[in-house]
Amino acid sequence: MRQSQLFTRTKKDAPKDEVSKNAQLLIRAGFINKEMAGVYSFLPLGLRTLNKVIQVIREEMNAVGGQELSLTALQDKSLWEKTDRWDDAKVDVWFKTALKNGTEVGLGWSHEEPLTRLMQQQISSYRDLPVLVYQFQTKFRNETRAKSGIMRTREFIMKDLYSFSRTKEEHEKVYASVRSAYIRVFDRVGLGKTTYPAFASGGAFSKYSEEFQTVSDAGEDIIYIDEASGHALNSEVLNDEVLADLGLKRENLVEKKSIEVGNIFSLGTKFSEPLGLTFKDEEGKLQPVIMGCYGIGPARVMGTIAEILSDENGLVWPESVAPFRVHLISLNTDEKADEIYTALTTAGIEVLYDDRDMSAGEKFAESDLLGMPYRVVVGKRSLASGKAEVKKRTEDESQEMAFDDLVSFFKK
Ligand code: ATP
Ligand code: MG
Question: Which CATH homologous superfamily contains domain 326-411?
Fold first, then answer.
């Protein structure tokens, strides 16, 4: 894309009321726009990154057999009353509204209830199981705090996957495969080294759930990590009995602030029993379906990347989620730079092309702020030498590369 056509502007300073680093950088770079506290719009560059995070998650959910669907935001009160999750005293994040005739409806903050009801029409026999379905869908949550930029918002896309199994054993296999898919997701988006599966409280049907916690001072959670085993646990399960279970010793634990980027849960029959989701087993006996739920917030992942990988000059995107792979900069060399732009994009390489009439200093500062993985500069000297300057966003040194070698270098 030609930068002269990009309608978003960068800003020198972050808005004064924005306390989180991720939102400061993303607003300055023109990736997002703050509509009100805890509510952000995604602009073209930000949307490209968000969609790439979504695509990584989608590929990994498909790889473990997930089938994608899309449920509605509007929620039926009577359904949520059956599981006792309509009352504000039970669930404190509801946004509720009403139809013209006065009928109350809710805006979905999670989707166990409607999906369990939907599955009642689809599942009847053991032959129908196991099933994994997921969606990328907008959740509404009336969060009390909203100080973490796009990591905690009142309206956000969640990837929520739900599994339906015949037996506890089958559920455990499915759970393990989704868990490994989560590890691959966080690896692919550049958070693998700093993200730990951490035990957290499990609710009525299983002792533990697991949170995927990324170590960061910007986090709102506290985890305890056992470096030797790679195990971690949330402070809410830090007691001597939860430790003995896990074979951990209190002295070995290191306390860290962290961001919950994902959460996976065994639900047992918590939803299938009250909503009557059953199947006929091989002997013809009715059994409740065993469920699991698995969430990731793509925008929270994106905010976490912005927090952790950025430097004093701006954002630093891993190649897997960068809006564009290459930031091509013309320094009054438009004819040659145009040619390179065409060659790269024709080869399928994603390029943001700074074809504007601005000083080199301004262009470089802005390029650092936007954070594409590679910067390719075509200046006056390049025209003489036949070489462009190629620099990684994460490195200080650049290398000279012959114009003719650029396409093959970036095709790799
Ligand atoms: P938290 O404890 O941080 O409030 P949660 O436990 O309520 O999160 P889940 O219901 O487990 O969150 O949601 C699954 C995932 O959705 C989370 O792991 C996180 O990545 C994301 N998420 C949750 N709440 C928000 C939010 N308000 N804004 C953005 N992403 C969110
Ligand atoms: Mg959670």
Answer: Anticodon-binding domain (3.40.50.800)
How many Cβ atoms are within 10 Å of 297's Cβ, its own excluded?
Answer: 25
pLDDT in tens, the chain (412 residues): 999 999 999 999 988 889 999 999 999 999 999 999 999 999 999 999 999 999 999 999 999 999 999 999 999 999 999 999 999 999 999 999 999 999 999 999 999 999 999 999 999 999 999 999 999 999 999 999 899 999 999 999 999 999 999 999 999 999 999 999 999 999 999 999 999 999 998 876 788 899 999 999 999 999 999 988 888 999 888 887 788 887 888 898 999 999 999 999 999 999 999 999 999 999 999 999 999 999 999 999 999 999 999 999 999 999 999 999 999 999 999 999 999 999 999 999 999 999 999 999 999 999 999 999 999 999 999 999 999 999 999 999 999 999 999 999 999 8
Q: If you classify domain 3-309 with CATH, what class do you get? A: alpha beta
Q: What angle do CA 243, 245, 247 make, to 5 degrees?
A: 70
| Closest C-alpha to ligand 1, atom 4 | 152
Question: What are the extents of the domains in the chain?
Answer: 3-309, 326-411
Span from the CA of 263 to the centroid of ligand 1 (angstroms) = 8
Nearest ligand to the C-alpha of residue 200? 2
Angstrom CA distances, 257 to 223, 235, 246, stand at 6, 10, 21
Ligand 1 pocket test: which of 260, 302, 307 has the largest number of ligand atoms within 8 Å of its C-beta? Answer: 260
